[in-house]
């Protein structure tokens, strides 16, 4: 299936599913039920007779009647709506005008070119009236105008020129940064506009250049509770971006893969799983450099994607595209894992920050052969372990990190000095009083290795005491 074909297929699936109605759509329904007293605008000489005659014939009629009115004089349609948008100041009336225009464009996408042609004939910017509304206090007006800009930009025969495009994409990016829902209840509309824009290949690179990807990732990874629909829409934008090989090459540095794996683990929604797996598949298929593909594969392994794929396989899935992507990713990741040495696996796990009791941690042979390699790249792996001890609140991660610090000291002769220089000794010691018994045990064992020579004998004592009900039988004082 072609890139555009798959885009259309995914969007058709979305339309067929139960999609949460946005705040804008809900309020647009209320606006449509309003009635504007056009006669008062005519009497007050705020609109001309021509405008009055057109808008009263256009308002509250069937789509067929609107179509006939527009086709009989297309330029009048553009001129009158532009005039009304620029001249009418009252919020309620402007809401109504923008909703009418948005509906008219939705009925027939080719109508956006009428606005383009009208502006070109008058040597004016087609965007200026709508950009001017993006600063209004009334948020419905702001986001209804933003929707219209997106439709003109995406449905027109001519692309949006770069200066206006940058301005609009920066505006969308900044809306994503607003706290949701306290400062931006229209986040779903922002995401919808961005979905439309990211369908256009030429617009994607500009969005990347204005730091758009990292903004999306920060929203997806943030602590705020965005709903699954907004989450889906933003991942859809990431998926669109993965159709560009040059963009994919820049993604691995932006923490996209672990963020999406986390969402996959949390969400039970099939449509969310489908778009995430389609994104990961593109990250294998689209890059032109084999090194980029391998980096992406390693990042997926580090993020424990295989575990999430196993859980997905346990579900009843009817979507054939999802099943195909699931099988494809399982095959690719299995091949990548085979190419990894035990040390590669360890590096992947540490860099992922998702420590668990995988076999390498408890392997004497592994530490005997690889402890010295933790010094590589200016102690990169040790520094990550130290950072996890500083920042993590997960008992499992803290236990494994403390254990690995101890094993490094045990098998590398100069390890104690390095650990002290990195500040890890004090960090480990502070966990001697941790509320979790496993963390206390691993911290105490690590301290033994840091402070005594014959740790093997004391280590056996600790194992025996642990088996008798915890680590209370051995205290920090026993290390002296």
Which helices and strands appear, and what pairs or packs with what?
Layout: H1 3-16, H2 23-32, H3 38-43, H4 49-58, H5 63-72, H6 74-87, H7 91-107, H8 112-121, H9 128-133, H10 139-155, H11 162-177, H12 187-198, H13 201-209, H14 212-221, H15 228-241, H16 245-251, H17 256-266, H18 270-285, H19 290-302, H20 305-313, H21 320-338, H22 342-352, H23 364-370, H24 376-391, H25 395-411, H26 415-421, H27 424-430, H28 437-451, H29 455-467
Helix pairs in contact: 5-6, 6-8, 7-10, 10-12, 11-12, 11-14, 12-15, 14-17, 15-18, 17-18, 18-21, 19-21, 19-22, 20-21, 24-25, 25-28, 27-28, 28-29
Structure description:
This protein is mainly α. Helix content is 71%, strand content 0%. It is built from 29 helices and no strands. The chain has helices spanning 3-16, 23-32, 38-43, 49-58, 63-72, 74-87, 91-107, 112-121, 128-133, 139-155, 162-177, 187-198, 201-209, 212-221, 228-241, 245-251, 256-266, 270-285, 290-302, 305-313, 320-338, 342-352, 364-370, 376-391, 395-411, 415-421, 424-430, 437-451, 455-467. The model is unreliable at 470-480 (pLDDT under 50). V-ATPase is a heteromultimeric enzyme made up of two complexes: the ATP-hydrolytic V1 complex and the proton translocation V0 complex. Pfam families: V-ATPase_H_C, V-ATPase_H_N.
The total of beta strands comes to 0
- Contiguous low-pLDDT stretches (5 residues minimum) are 470-480
Assign a percent range to the helix content: over 70%
pLDDT averaged over residues: 88
Separation of the first and last Cα atoms: 68 Å
Please give the radius of gyration in angstroms: 30 Å
What percentage of amino acids are in beta strands?
under 5%
* SSE topology string: HHHHHHHHHHHHHHHHHHHHHHHHHHHHH
Q: Report on the biggest sheet.
A: none
* Assembly state of the chains shown: single chain
Structural class given helices, strands, pairing?
mainly alpha
Total helix count? 29
Shape: elongated
Domain ATPase V1 complex subunit H C-terminal: 340-455
Subunit structure: V-ATPase is a heteromultimeric enzyme made up of two complexes: the ATP-hydrolytic V1 complex and the proton translocation V0 complex.
GO molecular function: proton-transporting ATPase activity, rotational mechanism
InterPro entries: ARM-like, ARM-type_fold, ATPase_V1-cplx_hsu, ATPase_V1-cplx_hsu_C, ATPase_V1-cplx_hsu_C_sf
